[in-house]
Amino acid sequence: MSTNIELTKPGAITRISTPGPRLASVNLLSPATLESLAVRRVRRRLLAAGLVGALVVGGGWLVEGAKLHSAQHRLASEQAQTAPLQAQLTALEPVAKFFAQLDARKQAASKAMAAEVLFSKALTDLNSRTPQGLAINNMSVTLTPSVVTSVAPPVSPLTQAGIDAAGNVVTTSPAAGAAAGTTATTPAAPTAAASSAAAGAVSCARPDPFHPAAIIGCVTLSGTAPSRDVVGQFVNNLKAGTYYADPFVTTTTVTGTDGVQSVQFSGSVGLTGAAVSGRYADLSWLADPKVLAEAEQMVAKGNTASSRLAASTAAAQKAAKKAADKAAADQAAADAAAQQAAEDAAAKQLQDAAAAALAAANAAAANQANNSGQGK
After folding, report:
1. Which of 169, 203, 259, 310 lies at a C-alpha separation of 20 to 30 Å from 293?
2. Which candidate, 202, 203, 206, 196, places its Cα nearest to that of 247?
3. Please, is 248 exposed, middle or buried when counting C-beta atoms within 10 Å of its C-beta (0-12, 13-18, 19+)?
4. Could you tell me which residues come within 8 angstroms of residue 129 by beta carbon, excluding any fewer than 6 positions away?
5. Closest residue by Cα to residue 245 from 125, 369, 80, 372
6. Taking the C-alpha atoms of 364, 367, 373 and 376 in order, what is their torsion angle to the nearest 10 degrees?
7. Phi-psi region at 11: left, alpha or beta (left = phi > 0; alpha = psi -120 to 50)
8. Cβ(221)–Cβ(139) below 8 Å
9. In b/e form, how buried is each residue of 28-48, taking b as 16+ CB within 10 angstroms?
10. For the whole model, what pTM was predicted?
11. ∠ Cα 84 100 277 (to 5°)
């Protein structure tokens, strides 16, 4: 080992040692001892790993056991509640049976009364369209329920009016329905082919058999009138109504004595689907019959879901057209302003070019005059 001496302060000596060559080491343990030590180290590691594994398995077993115990506890609790719930269900079985029977009776009533026709309204309309002096002496009506439901499927007055069983309006405007993801529904109409096929099953004389109207039944009638003109007025009045279609007078006979004329006539007229009540299509109004009366009044006044939907659609279209017209007018004004600006810029450029040309001409003339003066 070598030693260096460094003076840091007067009178102080610091010794610094520097490493010298390393001495060789000698292992006096036998290979068997070394192997035994290695085996012991491996055993200790395996033992530690086994203990860790046992702890993990034991912890998982404890957790799963706790979960199983909790699940068994919940199962026992639910099973303890089964008996009381079953008792309540048994007690409510008569109520459920009653409502099931009530629903069945509602469906039976709806099916049985689907073809109900309000003859009172049809007769009232007929009376209002009968001219003065004309008398109907005999009348008969032929109806087939299957034809009625085929030509004019029953639609509830609540659906037509657009209200629910509580009398609340359920129709919305197209924009509101689109925003809410819903649309207002209108009564579905039968297809033209189905209506024509069903209407063709009605045996009734028609003025135009090649283009028959959709009717649910045939009304045959006969009576007397002061003249054939009055009979013709009666036919025109029936054509203008909503309850009747295709009126046709088959025979007219003029009789009279001592200047008193009388016309005996007979004919038929088709009954349209406007006479179908539809009030049994939805029996939710049974809880409050006033709602049905309100719906019927709304339909009679024309305040229906389809009319409100049409009005709101027209209003939306009008607003959209107004906005489009305003946008077009604004665009036209902007285009006109741009055109005017372009024309003004072009005029200014022409003026500037003319001024520049005039200045150049004046400069040339002045230069020529100057040159001429110098030449003299």
Report:
1. 310
2. 206
3. middle
4. 234, 237, 238, 240, 241, 244
5. 125
6. -80
7. left
8. yes
9. eeeeeeeeeeeeeeeeeeeee
10. 0.55
11. 150
Determine the Cα angle at 264 with ends 142 and 133, to 5°.
95
- β-pairing, 260-271 vs 217-225, is antiparallel
Strands (E) located in the chain: 3-9, 12-17, 135-143, 217-225, 244-257, 260-271
Please return the burial class of 276, using the count of CB atoms within 10 Å of its CB with bins 0-12, 13-18 and 19+: buried
User: What is the per-residue pLDDT across 322-375, written as a single tens digit (0 to 9) for each?
Assistant: 999 999 999 999 998 998 888 888 888 888 888 888 888 777 777 777 776 665
Task: Note whether 268 and 221 are within 8 A (CB).
Answer: yes
What is the 8-class DSSP label of residue 218? E
**Residue 101 identity (one-letter amino acid):** Q
- Residue with the bigger pLDDT between 287 and 333: it is 333
Please state, in angstroms and rounded to a whole number, the distance separating the CA atoms of residues 62 and 54.
12
The alpha carbon dihedral of 67, 71, 76, 80 has a sign of positive
